[in-house]
Amino acid sequence: MFSQADFLQFTQWSGIATVVFAVLALLAFILKWGIRFRLVGTTGFMLVLTAGLFALSLAPLTRTVVPGALRYSLVYDNGATKAVIATPVEITRSELEATLQQAASDLFSYGRLASRGEDKLIIRARTVIHPEEGLSVPLYLGEVKRSLASREDSQMEIEIYQANFERLTQLSA
């Protein structure tokens, strides 16, 4: 993944290319070349590209990685205060905690809306078990509650559903 310094370097090179195309377009108008309008379009495109690269050099593009977290898939997200992730069946308690922390970090957004006085994002983790042939049952293993207002939430509440976790270990044994 590129860093802010990389995008600043790309902006510099793109800016140089923009100036070169602008000079070529000006020269094309003076000498009445047939491609003069194409060069104007290319210069405009380069201006937009340079502005975009400059914007990327200002904004941080960081992603928090929680050690021990497993890959998960987002099953449900209402865009406000509720989300559900799916985890593998072969998950340990420590991996579940790390995965819930990872999901809390990944799904945080300042654009989420608080609804009915709720100021917490609740992310529940589930897996699918098969107690008998042809039957699939979702089993909720835990949840994390985090603040909707602050990216760095030191008050995250992680709850593991012990009874469901024990049921999972019994079925996989």
From TrEMBL:
Keyword annotations: Membrane, Transmembrane, Transmembrane helix
The keyword Membrane belongs to this UniProt entry's keyword annotation: yes
Keyword Transmembrane: yes
InterPro entries: Uncharacterised_Ycf51
Transmembrane regions listed in the UniProt entry: 12-31, 43-61
Descriptive protein name: DUF2518 family protein
Organism this protein belongs to: Mastigocoleus testarum BC008
